Amino acid sequence: MTAQPTIEIIDVAPRDGFQAVKTAIPTAQKIAVAKALMDARFKRLEVGAFVSPKAIPQMADTPDVHAALAPLQKHRGLRLSTLVPNALGARNALNAGINDLVFVLSASESHNQSNVKRSVAQSLGELAEIVEMGRQVTGFKLRVNIATVFDCPFEGRVGEPVVLAVIEQCLKMALPMEFGLCDTTGRAFPDQVRAFCGNVITKHRSNPAIRWAFHGHDTYGLGVANALYAYQAGIRIFDAAAAGLGGCPFAPGASGNTASEDLVFTFENMGIGTGIDLPKLLDATVLIAALAGVDMGGHVRSLARTRVCN
Fold first, then answer.
1. Do the Cβ atoms of 111 and 251 come closer than 8 Å?
2. For residue 193, what pLDDT is reported?
3. In the annotation, is 248 catalytic?
4. Among residues of the chain, what percentage have pLDDT more than 70?
5. Domains in the chain, please, with CATH?
6. Which of 152, 170, 197, 248 is catalytic?
7. Which residues on neighbouring strands pair with residue 45, listed in sequence order?
8. How large is the average pLDDT for residues 58-70?
C-alpha cells in the first residue's frame, strides 16, 4: 500500500463531547478519560471551555481539569486547548495559565445568536480583543472555529461567500491562526466539503501563517466520508471525538462528532498515518461508556477487536 501524507487528529471529546452530557461528570473521571486519550498517543486534545456555568454547567471545572493535565504536556509533547466564546472567556483562560485557545463563531447570524448570543460582527470584535491579548502572551496559539460553514440549523445551506467573508475579517487581524471549518449539523455532503475546502486552501495557499482543519459530525452517517473528501482537498488536521460523543447544544438535531476510532481505522487502513494507537483509543471509549448519561456514536468500537486491530 502506498504511503500517503499523514494527518493529525485532535480529540475533542473532553470538551465538545462532554458538554452535551447533561449528567454531571466528576472531574476525576474527565481527567481519567483525557489521560487515556494521551495514552492512545493523541498529541492534541480540546479540554473544556471557559463559558458561563449557567449556560453549560458541565464545563465549570475546566480550570481544575487543565491544572491536573498541564504537568503532562511537556513530558508527552502534548497540546491542550480550551474553547472560549468571547473575550471574557479568553481572559479567564489566560489568567488560568492556558495559552492555547479555540475561539468559536458562526458563519450564519441566527446560529451565532443562538450559540453565543451576539451578532457575527460582535463576535469578530471579541476576536480582535483576544488577538490583542494574545500578542502579549508568550507561546500564544489561536484556533478559530467557524461553525455552520456548510449548513445552519435555522437558515439551511450557507453560501461560500458568507464564510469567505468571515475568514477575510479574521485574517485582517494579522496573527497566525488555525481555522476549523465546522460541519456543525452534519448536513454537509462530501462533494460540498471537497469543493469548499479545496477553494479556501487554494485561495490562501501563499499565506504560511494559516492552517486548516475539518470538524465533522456524523448526524447523517457522512462523518467519515466528509473527512476523506476534506483530505482529498488538502486538509490534514481533523477534529473527532472518542466514542462519537458530542453535539452542539444550540443546533437542534445535531448529533455527535465523527468518532475518532472510526477515522483512525479508516485512514490507517488506507495507508494514511495518524500516529494513534487504536487499541488504546478503544480502551478510552470503554471508560467513556461507563460514564452516566453519555450518548455515544460511531461504529468501530462496537466491532470485535480482532477484526479491527489486526
1. yes
2. 98
3. yes
4. 96
5. 8-308 (3.20.20.70)
6. 248
7. 11, 80
8. 96
